[in-house]
Amino acid sequence: MIKLNCLAVDDESLALDLLEDNINKVPFLNLVKRCKNAFDAIETLQNESIDLVFLDIQMPGITGVQFLQSVKEPPMVIFITAYQQYALEGFDLDVVDYLLKPVSFDRFLKAVNKAYDLHNLKLKSAQVTEVEEKEKGLVYETDSIFVNADYSLVKVKISDITYIEGLKDYIKIHLEGSTKPIVTRMTMKAIEEKLPTEHFFRIHKSYIVAMPKIESIRNLKIKIGNMQIPVSEHYSEEFFKRIGQS
């Protein structure tokens, strides 16, 4: 059975408890995290694969509507709120369903079944597209990642990344053709796990490089564009094995 990874966002602990209880009753739902505000939700979307968000509307700071509007390609969303006047706005944002508190389990189940059917429909559509692309001789692969920058989820094309620089709890993603890197709060380990291992290699505790972008190597320094990036001794042996120079 395909499971939907879920995120529950509500500023009230009791509402989150009830929501978690309902989610745990449904075999195809998997609660990844509970968040009490939109900022935590944005960070979770950045670091986790989320299929469905249960989203309260009236929250301090950033409302559920503002949060949803800030995400460029959001997962499926079910609004759960005590305020019926937001229903029209919710459907304008293309949410899966709109539930009014207090939510009965029957009504909750109807909403998540709708999300489950929609998710399966998208999967089937993607599979058909993949087959068609392969038949045409085209490469079909995941070619982008999303990172949180400037209070939005920003789509980054993997083939544009030249190298990544770590700065404590933040990273800079340097892109081909751009003088301004994307700065996001993320660990080097977290971004490393998102990148295809066949194209990226960590050469230093503070640097990950895109292997196809390497122009030359001299004295344990890699040249990419105008940058000279150091290869640390800790990573040098594996790196030179990788490029067949061990």
Automatic annotation (TrEMBL):
Question: Which residues in this protein are found as 4-aspartylphosphate?
Answer: 56
Instruction: State whether keyword Phosphoprotein applies.
Output: yes
Q: Locate the Response regulatory domain: which residues? A: 5-116
Q: Per UniProt, which keywords does this protein have?
A: DNA-binding, Phosphoprotein
Q: Which domain of life is it from?
A: Bacteria
Kindly give the Pfam families that the UniProt entry links to this protein. LytTR, Response_reg
- InterPro entries recorded for this chain? CheY-like_superfamily, LytR-like, LytTR_DNA-bd_dom, Sig_transdc_resp-reg_receiver
Domain HTH LytTR-type, residue spans: 145-245
Protein name, UniProt field: LytTR family DNA-binding domain-containing protein
Species for this entry: Flectobacillus rivi
